[in-house]
Amino acid sequence: MVFFIIWLLLIGYAVFLAPGGETDPILSNIFSGDLGAIDPLVLAVFNSLGLFPMMFLTLLLLNDRQKWPAWPFALLSFGIGAFGLLPYFAFGNRKADRRLRTPAWLVRFLSSRFWLIVFMLFWVGNALTLLQGFSLAAYQEAFFSSGLVSVMTIDWFVLWGLSVYTVYHFYPQAKRKSLAWIPILGPILVLYLNKKAATRKST
Asked: What separation in angstroms does the CA of 128 have from each of 41, 80, 131?
């Protein structure tokens, strides 16, 4: 019920409360390729909304034995973020007496040190964006003038909370699972440090 309420609130915010206008300044800069005009923090948050779905795809497919298949919602999150994941957590994330849906070859890949390290490098690459210098004041201005920045910021925090919940839900016995609180990178670090347990759980 909590996830369903969050989903409704997120939709309500995007439809009724997010700032809007005839033209979205940030969206216009993205479409025109003028990324230099976008504050690095705005750009890093925008890029991280591509990393969150990759992380959820990894976590959910390694544990896809719940009531509803997780992969459609994980794939949907690449396009609409938490809007696509919340219905799964609200209604489909229930224990079911069934085998893992994910093919064995994909389980081996997603739990491999190769994939986990590649993901970490993606995260580092995005974090390096911030070294260009960023302004919290510029982000605040973008938040109140751009519907894209406003919605993606709320979406980012919801995805962060979902990622922490996912680690604690699927790996309650994991070592150093408090690392999951590190946005995006944390859950992957938990998998990396508990690779044997994660692989065994996924078979």
From this structure: 10, 25, 5
